[in-house]
Amino acid sequence: MAELDEIKQTTVSGLVFRRDHSHRRSSTLLPWITAKQDLRYLRGVVKKIVRAADLREELSFTSFRHGGFTEGADSDLTDAELRAAGRHRSSRQLPTYAKRTRKQLISGTKKRREERTKAAGLSE
Questions:
Q1: 106 within a domain of the structure (yes/no)
Q2: Helices 79-86 and 61-74 meet at what angle, rounded to 10?
Q3: Which end of the chain has less neighbouring CB within 10 Å, N or C?
Q4: Cβ atoms of 124 and 111 closer than 8 Å
Q5: Looking at the domain assignment, is residue 36 inside a domain?
Q6: Containing structural domain, residue 73
Q7: pTM of the entire structure?
């Protein structure tokens, strides 16, 4: 518990995966980004976590990203909210990450039906 409390004191908001050690130039736990500004090292770290947790081998860093976006879309988050959560500037990437699900289809159908019945003054 003390470790979690300590992490809360130095948390940089928005980062899911952070280094578990200090950087030579910063006492704040930084994200795992290499000199080329990519996440190659983090991919290996996530693979180790997946294996240690005895999860399906095909899971990867991007699997969790896709899953989070799809979960957000299922929760009726707006495009702006999804973009903010994923740090995207444009909504063009959203269809790549937020997969269509049956829940989204049903939710959309219900919303359209509610609008039609309201507009026509009908009851369901």
A1: no
A2: 160
A3: N
A4: no
A5: yes
A6: 60-100
A7: 0.51
